[in-house]
Design goal:
Elements (H helix, E strand, L loop, with lengths): L1 H24 L2 H22 L5 H19 L4 H7 L17 H9 L6 H11 L5 H8 L3 H17 L12 H20 L10 H17 L4 H14 L25 H19 L7 H14 L8 H14 L3 H15 L1 H9 L9 H13 L3 H14 L3 H12 L4
Helix pairs in contact: 1-2, 1-3, 1-5, 2-3, 3-4, 6-7, 6-8, 6-9, 7-8, 9-10, 9-11, 10-11, 11-12, 11-13, 12-13, 13-14, 14-15, 15-16, 16-17, 17-18, 18-19
């Protein structure tokens, strides 16, 4: 029970606590270390003392003390010493600019233009989502050591550049928005199909991403990509009730019970899509990557069943998306759609062109395995499934891939 309480507190309190400490102390290293130490203290003390009545308050008090202790140890420098006295400062906090939510503000801090885009995303996933370096590395398809260095350099650069916590100003928002949207979407994706741990879906992360998306929409109601991202997350999350079977196996879109989808989320997402269609028709900016992905998701969800899916429209939308984002993963998704229109031979040829870029990505091998199965090449399909299973970290996905492999003839 104590272990469950600690896990629940981590899901519910990590982002809130990191954001609170970052605002109070203005030092990301101190913030992350103090937060981690607070959870370590909970793991050590709660089994003996019992779970406190207010776990979040206990963790916050402990983390603040840990941060002050560290700053006092480094108080030879005057600036550090002054920071250590913050706990005794009863003066009201200064202005925080147009972004009032602590967690959303932290995202904007980490998405400072002084950092490379991938560094912004990785740092915020670490601080806000509480993801491990290994989980973030898998999301970026890079080695864990590479990602660790990237995150360390990002924090050092923020410190060296003396980037304050009480930003961004109104004119900074649009400059940082692309990185913020990328962060929110990656947090959502990590929750929707967790890359590590025993849970197939991490609802805490999907809920947090949608919460941030709603805040962004309130902050920038006229931005098409903000609206598109929120619509995309809502429509995708609507399928969550049908995503994992009772036995813990991933259920792919074509096999899902569409009657189990969340109709309220679908209605909300579709309303946002209609809003964007009307805005573009009235002369607004053409749709960006998130609006196009939301449109693709809408086409999937408009079909009464999988066999009625309008794959030609999906291929056309992916064609527009590739022009904006020619990443290997987008091209892989397009190739899967092409296979539905032009047949598995054509789709497989497109997928095979991505072999070098996606050799370490389980979904690449899973897509190949399925097309090879459809072509009757059972041996090659089995080998591809084996590679996908070896690379997949999500237990529900591994169960699905294993079943598909074991159903092969021969």
């Amino acid at each position: 029970m104590v272990e469950q309480a600690i896990s629940r507190a981590h899901r519910e309190e990590w982002a809130r606590l990191v954001a609170r400490l970052a605002r109070r102390f203005g030092d990301l290293d101190v913030t992350e270390e103090a937060t981690a130490e607070a959870f370590a203290a909970a793991a050590e003390r709660w089994p003996a003392m019992g779970v406190p009545p207010n776990p979040g308050g206990w963790l916050a008090t402990t983390a603040i003390r840990k941060a002050i202790d560290r700053l006092r140890r480094e108080s030879q420098r005057d600036a550090k010493h002054r920071a250590a006295q913050i706990v005794y400062d009863d003066s009201p906090p200064g202005t925080t600019g147009p972004v009032e939510d602590d967690r959303l503000r932290l995202v904007f801090i980490c998405c400072h233009p002084a950092l490379a885009l991938e560094a912004r995303v990785a740092l915020t996933l670490r601080l806000l989502g509480g993801l491990t370096v290994a989980e973030i590395a898998r999301a970026f398809l890079v080695q864990e050591t590479t990602m660790a260095r990237r995150i360390t350099r990002a924090k050092a650069k923020i410190t060296a550049a003396r980037i304050p916590y009480r930003v961004p100003r109104a004119d900074d928002i649009h400059e940082r928005l692309a990185g913020v949207l990328a962060v929110v979407y990656l947090v959502f994706n990590e929750g929707y199909l967790a890359s590590a741990g025993g849970e197939a879906v991490r609802v805490d992360l999907t809920d947090e991403a949608i919460r941030l998306g709603r805040l962004l929409r309130t902050l920038l109601p006229g931005d098409g990509e903000v609206t598109g991202l929120l619509a995309l997350m809502l429509l995708t999350d609507a399928r969550r009730p049908a995503r994992v079977s009772r036995t813990g196996e991933l259920v792919t879109l074509d096999e899902q019970d569409r009657g189990a989808w969340d109709r309220a989320l679908i209605a909300e997402g579709r309303a946002l899509i209609r809003e964007r269609v009307e805005a573009v028709a009235a002369g607004g900016d053409p749709p960006g990557r998130y609006q196009l992905q939301a449109a693709i998701t809408t086409v999937h969800m408009d079909a009464p069943c999988a066999r009625d899916t309008d794959w030609s429209t999906i291929v056309a939308l992916y064609g527009r998306l590739v022009l904006l984002d020619p990443s290997p993963i987008v091209r892989l998704n397009r190739a899967v759609a092409v296979a539905e229109v032009d047949g598995p031979t054509v789709g497989l040829a497109e997928i095979d062109r991505l072999a070098e870029a996606l050799a370490g990505y389980h979904a690449y091998h899973a897509a190949r395995a399925d097309l090879l199965r459809r072509l009757g090449r059972s041996g090659d399909s089995r080998a591809a499934y084996d590679q996908a299973i070896d690379l997949a970290a999500n237990p529900a996905e591994r169960a699905y891939l294993t079943r598909r492999r074991d159903q092969l003839a021969g």
